[in-house]
Amino acid sequence: MIEVFVLDDHPVVRQGIRKILDGEADISLAGEAATFQELLGLLDDKAPDVLVLDITLPGSSGLDVLKELKAQYPDIKVLILTIHKEEHFALRTLKAGADGFLNKMSVSDELVQALRKIAGGGKYVSTRVAELLAAGLDERSSGMSHENLSDREFQVLLRISRGMKLNDIAEELCLSPKTIGTYRERLLEKMNMRTNTELTYYAVKNGLID
Hints:
Layout: E1 2-7, H1 11-22, E2 27-33, H2 36-45, E3 50-54, E4 56-57, E5 60-61, H3 62-72, E6 78-82, H4 86-95, E7 100-103, H5 107-119, E8 124-125, H6 127-134, H7 151-161, H8 166-173, H9 177-190, H10 196-205
Parallel strand pairs: 1-2, 1-3, 3-6, 6-7, 7-8
Antiparallel strand pairs: 4-5
Helix pairs in contact: 4-6, 7-9, 7-10, 8-9
């Protein structure tokens, strides 16, 4: 039996996943969490065969959660499930250690297939992500300004775009405000922008934040 945990703050999404898996004899939804802290409580008891992880979570980034999970539980298998475009997050999350990437628009058709493949030790990507990989698309060739950012700069971009103050970002990322300010300067320069308002507009326009 393939045991699955789901980390997603939307109850409707979790219910939808449960409904899909209820019809499968070899897969069960063994745990649900709305926050990272809730997930850690579940992991204290046991680890799933596959964790389904939303990339957008309240108070944290799914990318941050992914990296922390891989640091604490290096053997955990993770399927990223998101509403965001593959071009913006797929390659970054796969490089961060995800075992698969699936857009929520495709979940009803591909979720079971993805879970079985990942639980069996494989990797799963949607047709769109496969096309991007085949085309050799990486952060330096996509043409999107944010793809030139490092992971830390990208994390700071997302938080600034959500309206967080630099001091709050520093506390959340366990860095100094001066360091966060340096990251902000670097990402503004790389993206050829000057203000937080420009960053927020860009993030909303390109679907980086809800």
